[in-house]
Amino acid sequence: MSFRRFLTVVVATLSFGAPAFAQNATPQQTPRPAPPSTLRAPTRADILRGEYGRYRANNDLLFYHLDIRVDPVKKTVGGKNTIRFKMLRDDTRIQLELYANLSVDKIVYGATPLKFERDLNTVYVDFPETLKSGRTYSIDFHYSGAPQEQGRFGGITFRSDPTGKPWINTACEGEGSSIWWPSKDQWRDEPEGMEISVAIPNDLVNVSNGRLQGKTDLGDGYTRWDYLVHYPINSYNVSLNIASYVHFEDRLGDLPLDFYVLPGSLEKAKVQFAQAKPMIEAYQHFFGEYPFAKDGYKLIEVPYSGMEHQSAVTYGNRFANGYLERDWTEVGVSPKFDFIIIHESGHEWFGNAVSAADVSDMWIHEGWTTYLECLYVEQVFGYDDALKYTNGYKKKIQNKEPIVQQRGIHRSPPQDMYFKGALFLNTLRSVVNDDAKWWKLIRDLFQHFKYQNIMTEDVVKFVNEQLGRDLTPVFDQYLRRIALPTLELTFDEKAGTVAYRWNADERGFNMPIRVGKRDAWQTIQPTTDWKVMANPLPKDQFEVATDLYYVNVVVLNAAGYKQ
Ligand SMILES: [Zn+2]
């Protein structure tokens, strides 16, 4: 998803009517910042939602067939999800999710109605006899109700387009798929494929993920639209987009590009959506073929900024470059392209094809995709723009919480996962210091992990093995610690030397870095212990390549104080 606007809580320091003479005696307290969310205790709901416990881990999703009817007037959704899964161990219960405000009409296994127990948004399904490890089962989960809008994009929204016709969309990454359909609502396990059948009034269009298989007039004023998803899919990516959409199309080689917009947007969209082709070409250049070729690529107009729905990317960036008409990284590069087309589609590679197995490690989606923006800029507008664009992200970084959060509690990491994530990957490119090797590494990483759900440890292990070096302390400092590594320098101009070391939380932090003169960088190998080297440069001419490595630099005097 795109960057969530950061909420600043302004805490005023008030003296609450204390008499004026007391002000000196009672110095103003600096308000204590909210504790990092890593320290905030999870609720029981967080654990039910986030933990990959026994009744999730005992099975492996194979296929969903979501078959529903959406009523734009009553604002209701109902129907069934056929869930096919393989048992991984013998058990009598599995865990699914459906928001508590929606009704479970029945759950059946063949002709047998199953018992179930609801706990907040969790639905435990109980079987009359033991399901056997290795065997495949299929149940039909029937439900109905009026989903309630909540969260940033509403989860599911029933709106009207400018002409008053229904405009219904889903975007539920934070809220979860269970806000509108019954599913195994977590990140680790994805079905291998999915069928999405949506019945809507005859005069409307539904665009979902996957390849359109056909439409069937149901004879009661409703038409069913059938889509087939040929790949594993995150449950939050499953999407409905219902409106009086008009369609236009293009192709990139064999890949169909399908565009759906409101009738009044058609001319603007034909101009703006021309950016989709060079975007896909840029990402294919770095990572290989578009990962959902059998499903095609779609771009669909929606009333919110945008979301990476797999093979059905949603778009609400007002048909203008930048991000909601802003110069997103404020260095003059962002106005050259449409941020939402480039960012949300980048998720097809990282987020949708390569997915994190827990929300804790969501930088695998957002840090990588933000870095993909930088790669797009490099490919289309050149290296200088890319470096400017990447470093423009520095001012958005907070460094107040680690990027990787506690797992098992479904808590979204802080915004730094986007910007610091991208700057970290740019730093890693400088650590590799061999672009041919770097391009091969990130392409191989994508190809190795595509269609998998992975954790940060998998990324670190792969990179270490491919490079034949141990960069674990570097990953850990950037992803699991709060502070940036600081390069400390102490000059002895009389002796013609400079002493240097890393000040970092990771004792083994040993990242190489380029220093000296900009056109003739020298790579040094600092550790967390002091080293001394000859340095003919005056202190004020000694530079550190902070545009290639995201680090702090401080100069200390001989006594060890900051100058
Ligand atoms: Zn995103």
Write the layout of secondary structure elements.
Layout: H1 44-50, H2 54-57, E1 59-71, E2 76-87, E3 91-97, E4 103-109, E5 112-113, E6 115-119, E7 122-131, E8 136-145, E9 155-160, E10 166-171, E11 193-201, E12 205-206, E13 211-217, E14 222-229, E15 241-243, E16 246-252, E17 255-261, H3 266-272, H4 276-287, E18 297-301, E19 306-307, E20 313-315, H5 339-346, E21 354-356, H6 363-381, H7 383-392, H8 416-432, H9 435-449, E22 452-454, H10 456-467, H11 472-480, E23 486-492, E24 497-503, E25 513-517, E26 520-524, E27 531-534, E28 543-544, E29 552-555
The protein binds zinc ion (ZN).
Zinc ion binds near residues 1 and 2.
Strand adjacency order, main sheet: 5-4-8-2-1-11-14-13
Supply the number of helical segments.
11
Structural class: alpha+beta
Strand proportion, as a percent range, falls in 25-35%
Mean pLDDT, nearest integer?
A: 93
Largest sheet: 8 strands, mixed
Short characterization:
The chain is of the alpha+beta class. It is built from eleven helices and 29 strands.
Give your account of this protein's structure.
This protein has 563 residues and is of the alpha+beta class. Helices cover 21% and strands 30% of the residues. The chain is built from eleven helices and 29 strands. The strands form seven sheets. An eight-stranded mixed beta sheet has the order 5-4-8-2-1-11-14-13. The longest helix has 19 residues, at 363-381. The protein is globular and about 90 Å long. Bound molecules: zinc ion. Zinc ion binds next to α6.
